[in-house]
Amino acid sequence: MTSTASPHLRIARPSRDLGAAERFWVDGLGLSVLYRGEAAGPGEHDLVMLGWPEAAWHLELVGGEHLTVAPRPTEEDLFVLYLDGPVEADLVTRLERAGGTRVSAGPYWDRWGVTVADPDGYRLVLSTRGWSNA
Q: Per residue in 63-100, pLDDT tens?
């Protein structure tokens, strides 16, 4: 397999409520809506793609009345952002106001950051570490 040094990464997840999930990721974390689509019929689903426009990744959330699978997050379904510095208290407050719930992700992540569950229960870890020392 060959790839560029930084291929684009898509993380796709089902959501019970796309509006609530979007508020968490956009109003709470500060991601942008990169694309939005609505189901045109059976077998399709509503979706919203979120991310930072220049990033090499995006988060795709799917939902709507035609969604065939419900979110089933586990304690190990982590979306980790390495901040390489402290987690600002106002960021955690914004995430909570946007529908997030602060949770423990175990001793390692509790030591190295803050974990907030999104409205579907998936966990966002804001790590104080940098990627090179993770």
A: 988 788 889 999 999 999 999 999 999 999 999 999 99
How many CB atoms sit inside 10 A of residue 111's CB? Answer: 10
Q: For residue 45, give its domain range.
A: 9-63
Q: Write out the two tokens for 70.
A: 């419900």
Threshold 0.85, pTM exceeds: yes
Lowest mean pLDDT among 3-7, 15-19, 60-64, 99-103: 3-7
Cα–Cα dist 61/29, whole Å: 15
Return the amino acid letter for 122. Answer: Y
Number of domains in the chain: 2
In a domain, residue 23? The reply is yes
